[in-house]
Amino acid sequence: MDTTIFSYFLAALGGFGISSLLGATIFVVWYYRGSRAWSFRWYQRNWHLKQLAALASLFFLAMVASYGVLHQAWAWFYLIAAFQTGTWWLRCVISSRA
Questions:
Q1: Range list of H helices, 1-98
Q2: What pLDDT, on the 0 to 100 scale, is given for residue 2?
Q3: Is residue 7 within 8 Å of 74, Cβ to Cβ?
Q4: What is the pLDDT of residue 1?
Q5: Is the pLDDT of residue 3 over 90?
Q6: Nearest-5° angle of CA 94, CA 97, CA 98?
Q7: Which DSSP category does 71 fall into?
Q8: Can you tell me the distance from the alpha carbon of 86 to that of 71, in angstroms, rounded to the nearest whole number?
Q9: Average pLDDT, the chain
Q10: Is 63 helix (H, G, I), strand (E, B) or coil?
């Protein structure tokens, strides 16, 4: 079975997903740009950034699985991205609990 069509579809989906996540992150940072530290808006901004990081990790893991099934090298790129966003999210959650 030829997997080139699936590869092109995943490349478009990956580009769209990454640009959407980056756009949402830029929007959140811009929307809460004047908030003072430890204010309610600061907590809201951090909450939204944690949600975006969790969503990005899940998106990257889904892309790892998809590219892994197709046995393509892009799976390593998405695995590294998933690991980086996942560790950032975990570090933020742990530091907010302490």
A1: 4-31, 40-69, 74-97
A2: 81
A3: no
A4: 73
A5: no
A6: 90
A7: T
A8: 23
A9: 94
A10: helix
**Domain range for residue 12?**
4-97
The angle subtended at Cα 34 by Cα 26 and Cα 85, nearest 5°, is 35
Residues 89, 94: Cα–Cα separation, whole Å: 9
Q: Report the C-alpha gap between 76 and 51 in whole angstroms.
A: 24
User: Residue 84: how many CA atoms within 13 Å on its side-chain side?
Assistant: 7
Q: Work out how many domains the chain is built from and give that number.
A: 1
Structure tokens at 51: 């949600």
In terms of Cα–Cα distance, which of 10, 8, 4, 9 is closest to 65? Answer: 10
CB proximity list for 82: less than 8 A, separation 6 or greater: 57, 60, 61, 64
**pLDDT for 98:** 58
What is the distance between the alpha carbons of residues 10 and 33, in angstroms, rounded to a whole number?
Answer: 34
Which residue type does 4 have?
T
- Cα–Cα–Cα angle for 65, 66, 72, nearest 5°? 100
Element housing 32 (H / E): none
pTM of the model: 0.91
